[in-house]
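Lecture notes, continued. The same structure-token format from the folding unit now serves as the input rather than the output. Read the line below as a description of shape only.
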């Protein structure tokens, strides 16, 4: 069984996923001389919004010059399934904490890690497709060999725009949740009386050596 401390950490980790429903998960900023205040979009758990009222429409208008596909939240299937996935993770973490079984906690952390890696890979793929799938024949601005994929995280120069991609509050909370989930397993493993690691022989009482 898990220690009380480990179970409490699992509860904290699961509840840290709740802000993903309330705050942006990721943000992409665009800075350029013609936009001194910058424009950007926020990726929420179930939609994509402009950072300011007209930002998303302005980004789509800019994309028209290079004939990039419009960003339409309703056309992104991940935004329909992400609320369900996060809800299952929250319930799973709370369930593992309530039952207190180590294998359930380990399974939850592993599942969380796999989902996190898959989510980042899918986001990179989404950025890649938008940045490379261009209709160059109809584009107003044509730069041979140029692609417009923003970075997964960090900054990148795209023509006269500097694109910056960073996690939002919801994404930061998710990272903290995963870290605390891993910490719960470490804390439980190091507590007195925890099971020995696989391949480690249990200690033999000195009295047992006396025939």
């Amino acid at each position: 069984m898990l220690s009380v401390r480990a179970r409490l950490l699992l509860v904290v980790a699961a509840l840290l996923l709740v802000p993903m429903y309330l705050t942006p998960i990721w943000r992409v900023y665009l800075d350029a001389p013609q936009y001194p205040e910058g424009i950007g979009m926020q990726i929420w758990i179930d939609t994509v919004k402009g950072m300011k009222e007209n930002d998303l429409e302005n980004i789509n208008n800019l994309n028209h010059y290079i004939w990039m596909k419009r960003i339409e939240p309703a056309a992104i299937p991940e935004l329909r399934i992400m609320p369900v996935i996060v809800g299952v993770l929250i319930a799973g973490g709370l369930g593992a904490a309530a039952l207190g079984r180590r294998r359930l906690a380990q399974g939850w952390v592993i599942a969380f890690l796999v989902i996190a890696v898959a989510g980042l890979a899918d986001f990179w793929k989404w950025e890649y497709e938008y940045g490379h799938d261009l209709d160059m024949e109809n584009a107003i601005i044509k730069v041979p060999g140029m692609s417009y994929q923003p970075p997964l995280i960090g900054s990148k120069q795209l023509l006269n725009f500097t694109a910056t991609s960073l996690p939002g509050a919801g994404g930061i909370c998710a990272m903290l949740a995963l870290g605390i989930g891993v910490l719960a397993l470490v804390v439980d493993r190091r507590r007195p009386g925890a099971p020995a690691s696989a391949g480690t022989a249990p200690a033999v009482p000195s009295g047992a050596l006396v025939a």
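Point for the exam: The longest helix spans residues 102-132.
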